[in-house]
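Researcher: Checking consistency across runs. Here is Heat-inducible transcription repressor HrcA again:
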Amino acid sequence: MAQSPQLEELNERSREVFRRLVEAYLETGEPVGSRSLTRSLTEKVSAATVRNVMQDLELMGLLDSPHVSAGRVPTQTGLRMFVDGFLEVSDLSNDDRAKIDETVQSNSADVATLMDRVGAALSGITAGASLVLTPKQQEAPISHIEFVSLNDDKALAVIVFSDGHVENRLFSPPPGQTPASMREAANFLNSFAGGKTIGELRQVIENEISVRRQELDTLAQELVQNGLALWTDDGGGQERLIVRGRANLIGAGTTEVDVNRVKSLFDDLERKRDIAGFLELAEEGDGVRIFIGSENKLFSLSASSLVVSPYMNADRKIIGAVGVIGPTRLNYGRIVPIVDYTAQLVGKLISDRGKR
């Protein structure tokens, strides 16, 4: 990442004071005073000198004085500069790796169960709240489509996907449908379906129907449109946002203000109907991304941070995301490799299922 102009303005002493202060704050969650900082600095300077540096950093908007005490805490701007310019990401510990591996050890579970386990594991390991966006089954390319008549007012749409899974949906066909119109509709769809997802096929079919309206029987047109709508209406998707670990954000010593913030966060999550924005956060950049405070536009809660990473299928297409949310004083150096490893592992498991 490019260095911020503020970082370039700092001399070596100011950089070390800033870095040591933020590291101490992330470890303790408490305001950091000049006296404690002087003991950790490489250069031996007086507490008065450190206070002057801290005042300069405060004037730059990097530090704040939450109370009348001399202690300082990093602002959101300061945390962002620390993450971009000073953060040292540790290697994933053997213990954390083993816990994640154990969670997904059995690949026999269905995807929903697997994602529930991943969410619970992330929450437990990081002592934060986990967010897991499950993949849409409909994002897999289509292999074959059939319409099966069950009775006069019920039909079954059967879609076989390239990853091997099959979806069956009941729907009401247009009155007067015949076996011939059912076959015609299926043949029409299959002539375009190969290698396309439901969303991609929908766009192609809408264009083709308008161009070839005379070639298609009216009943077949309606079957095509009605059948595809089953997978493309707002309520038909299988994308789910799994949230685990609410209690982790309300620990010992939590104030009433903190409790209200956590409630606000989960209210945002629970009432959010369009969760595509969560995936968009991950898609905007490669690998793990960190959102601090109000940088996260999805939630009204400003005193939180989100560490999120996408995971991909065998075609290197982003199909979901995993993340951890917690207070802004998260241990970013430890959380980042956990989220990164989990995302890579989930992507591999999803890809391996598609090869079966």
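Researcher: Does this match what you'd expect to see?
Model: One thing to look at in this run: Confidence is low (pLDDT under 50) at residues 233-237.
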